[in-house]
């Protein structure tokens, strides 16, 4: 049993802290946001993540999981301190490190005995060393020792608990073998593969992994755009490609591009890191540009289907960047909906979970509704932006009745073209022949 404090109780801190508690550790999750902590103390979860509420409740009851805004006290009470605060995109695309540095200062000020400081936030190479330096500068007693470890997070929002409990690997980067061993032991109940390396390589693995996945997405979207023009079907192409074990079938679904809190900022951050290091990472820059452009594919398809968008009413289904999350950070809908409005359309929209989060960001561009039925009533076309199960499973006959004309643009390839032809839709998807 380890005494762990997790600083930052967002998607990563809350999920990983809860999972560490669930495998038998005593975990204190803390945050600067007092509202978040007040909610958590009442057993309310500030984010939407399947299974999280039950797991938090279970571990609060078992007296293994605690919440506080007294960050200094929490640090003093534990032996392993996880840093899981945000590293958002700065003005030039760089990772904004102010929160990590702030936490490092607080840790330094409260270093009352030996501790292992583990960084879980996604951070540029060199951060572990910087954290070490900041702690040294701020500790009151220079004889109190500590070690810094990098243990980047790979969970996916929407299946975060599952990903944490059954993690494919734990990357542990450290200068001290002892500290690395202790963090490896902490992961033993997860029965995962441990990959141990130095601090710098561990930090780089996270960016490299995300940039590679983003590249796969932009690549298949490029292939999709070619498929459309030459009469091929990208779903068949990616299925055929994916059978090659060197390629693998995951992250080969064509659509409107990646979004969310990680890929956009991490690709920008890596591009910035490369530039600072004197390497012009052109491939990565193209991945980013291709992703930005891919958003507009569905806008062009709507124009193709309806002629001009002027005066047209579009029913948008799905706002979050992917299903099973309320995270709206860099969601494609944030770009697509304003563009539809710029082109003269009016927008009605539905999302089963991200409704409030979306309203907070682009409320002025659309009217939002609590059901698919209300959203699509009298619309000139339906536009799918997120493949929530209730959207994929909706009654297409009813959808046809609600729409003025049976026009659907599907940014997520939710249905087969055959099905949509049978249902009598004019159906435009990504990388597949249009059904007209
Ligand atoms: P988040 O914004 O959901 O949560 C960060 C939390 O840190 C917030 O609750 C914030 O109030 C808190 N915080 C900020 N400064 C603090 C301070 N000084 N002391 C205490 N708390 C403070 O962010 P997130 O999505 O959990 O991401 C955290 C890190 O993990 C980022 O670096 C991100 O890139 C990385 N990551 C995220 C995911 C993901 O899917 N969300 C996956 C892997 C890695």
TrEMBL record:
Its EC number is 1.1.1.22. It catalyses: UDP-alpha-D-glucose + 2 NAD(+) + H2O = UDP-alpha-D-glucuronate + 2 NADH + 3 H(+). GO terms for biological process: polysaccharide biosynthetic process; UDP-glucuronate biosynthetic process. GO terms for molecular function: NAD binding; UDP-glucose 6-dehydrogenase activity. Residues 315-417 form the UDP-glucose/GDP-mannose dehydrogenase C-terminal domain. The active site is at 262 (nucleophile). It is an enzyme of class 1 (oxidoreductase). Pfam families: UDPG_MGDP_dh, UDPG_MGDP_dh_C, UDPG_MGDP_dh_N. The keyword NAD applies. Keywords: NAD, Oxidoreductase. Pathway: Nucleotide-sugar biosynthesis; UDP-alpha-D-glucuronate biosynthesis; UDP-alpha-D-glucuronate from UDP-alpha-D-glucose: step 1/1. The keyword Transcription does not apply. NAD(+) binds at residues 31, 36, 87, 122, 157, 265, 329. Substrate binds at residues 154-157, 206, 251-255, 259, 322. Belongs to the UDP-glucose/GDP-mannose dehydrogenase family. This is UDP-glucose 6-dehydrogenase.
